[in-house]
Amino acid sequence: MNRQDINDDDLQQLLQEQPPKPDADTKARHMAAAMAAFAAQQSAEKKSTVLQGFLERLRLTRDTNHHGDKSMNNTMNNNGFDNRPFWQKPALISGIAASSLAVLAGLTFMQNLMINSDQQELATRIAEQSLRKSVPLNVQEPANAIISEDKKILADMTIAEDAVEYQEMEAAVAVERKEQTKLAAQKMDMSVVQKMKSEAQPMALSAPAPMVEETIVTQPPQEFRNRFEDFKENTVIAASENPVSTFSIDVDTASYSFVRRMLNNGQLPEKDAVRSEEMINYFDYAYPLPKDRKTPFATYTSVMDSPWKAGNKLIHIGIQGYQLATSDIPQSNLVFLLDVSGSMDEPSKLPLVKQSMSLLLDTLKPDDTISIVVYAGAAGTVLEPTKAKEKNKILAALNNLQAGGSTAGAEGIALAYQLAEANFNAKGVNRIILATDGDFNVGQTGDEQLQDFVERKREKGIYLSVLGFGQGNYQDEMMQTLAQNGNGTAAYIDTLSEAQKVLVTEATSNLFPIAKDVKIQVEFNPNTVKEYRLIGYETRALNREDFSNDKVDAGEIGAGQRVTAIYEITPVGAESGLLENSRYQKENKPDIGKNGEYAFLRLRYKLPSETQSKLIETPIEKNVLLEAHAGYQQEVNFSIAVAGFAQLLRGSNYAGNFTYDKVIELAQANKGKDEFGYRTEFVQLVRKAKIAKEL
């Protein structure tokens, strides 16, 4: 390198000049190297040595060419000045290093300040949003967002020679940021919870209490958590081995409307969602009404050929309840128990609940009493017992409800029963109407515990009906348990028109019972029936001895309600049976007598105010003249079309050669008057099921 002489003035001017500012890449490299060296110092002694070497290089008085006097002399001219180029001079290098360290320290301080500020702001936003919407806190996503930004910055600053240190530093930064963000959000969340708890007031049954929404960390509602009771389809039974079939009646309709919703969405329902008896009993069959209130039931039986298996026959049983006159309808003490938890915050849930309850108000007498209890993270009374004539007050309480929080369903049920007991009407109907998606996730949530509680209250004359809403986390099994043990009905409300059907058109049958603990027992004649199978009622089966035991609970029938049951039988001598003949049992011969019977029907029930049951008995003859009742044949045929459809949806092993097209044909021919269009809608659902099956 050639030496260049400079005068004193030039030298002084050069030394007074500020060292050039490092560009962005230079600053990034310096900061990354320093942070990597610092992390290495804490993890291993070797990395500590690297850091010390790095700092030694940045020492202000460091001369990078110090190898003895000879070397030093080679760099000095005769006047004692350093003749090296300016970029190799220690003073300039030291100035650049000092500037770099200052920039590095400033950037590090500002970055830490910004991160802390962002974390505090993040925690505040999360807490405020939780208060407004009562949603579970979740800091994982924001933390991941910060870490992703850090990764981007670190990636831009990466240099090849420090790759290992950068990886270790990145992991350490990610863990630290995640913990800091989580801690900040938790501190903010705890302060909010403490504040809300300190402001909460004790709830009283005699006056409205505001809803207390606890900001607690819970699991968010999960989609596709619909829960139905798992049951196996009734099988074929040999009449010679077990001639008696016993079950509790069922007038619920929840299965049909849930199936309808699934089909309208273009999906086939899961098989456990299809309960054949609820599909059949959804429709209003025009069975003749009983004439005498002292005997509140009329029973009708008929026999016809099976449309899905040649050689078999169907025994159709129709039971019609007595219809109360308007003047005979008792007063009502109703408690609306409404789920306002976060899972109900959907258009098909809480908004539809409000509309449904509003429709019910129009069917009540002015002196009927209405109370409203709501539950989410906690339960509270939002409307004290109020006469139905104060409709505006009741509607205002309904319209003010908002969804949010977890689901303390058991606590809400307990509070509703307390309110019903406090206003018990000994001469009227005392009923709780629970509107929910059934997702109880706080408090006493076991089916058996709730069942025991509801049974005890049932004995005191307070009944429980359940209205299900929504899907995704629809807990049908829970609601069936509550309704069956609460002497109530279970319906599923998927549309406003369904609410009109359940709570207006069929209000008297769903609210006012004419009989309780209704049981059916059919004894088959082994001389005429080889095999039999009950279609549906799998979840309602009873032991044979339960039929005469008045301590055993069974179903409830409301005013004007009807019940339909269908058996498929294989007559003796027919080749259509599924069971092999017994080698050692005596073979029965067909009964060719004109008055031969296929079976004998027994119906047992209690009047609402009585504890001892009454018995109705009817023979089921082989040759029944269906024409004896005008229009009855049409009702029977349509119910059989529905039964066949239910079997196809479940993928039944006993559907034979029945198809969706045959269901449509049979239903179309027997729609009848169809005043409300339910049967026309049924035909459309069958078509949708056929399309969904083919996809």
TrEMBL record:
| Residue numbers spanned by region Disordered | 1-27
Q: Per its UniProt record, what CDD domains does this chain match?
A: vWA_subgroup
Which InterPro entries does the UniProt entry name for this protein?
Answer: CLCR, Uncharacterised_YfbK_N, VWF_A, vWFA_dom_sf, YfbK_C
Which Pfam family, just one, is annotated for this protein?
vWF_A
Under SMART domains, the record lists:
VWA
Entries under PANTHER family matching the protein = CALCIUM-ACTIVATED CHLORIDE CHANNEL REGULATOR, ZINC FINGER (C3HC4-TYPE RING FINGER) FAMILY PROTEIN
* Name of the molecule in the record: Ca-activated chloride channel family protein
Name its species: Cellvibrio fibrivorans
The organism's lineage is: Bacteria, Pseudomonadati, Pseudomonadota, Gammaproteobacteria, Cellvibrionales
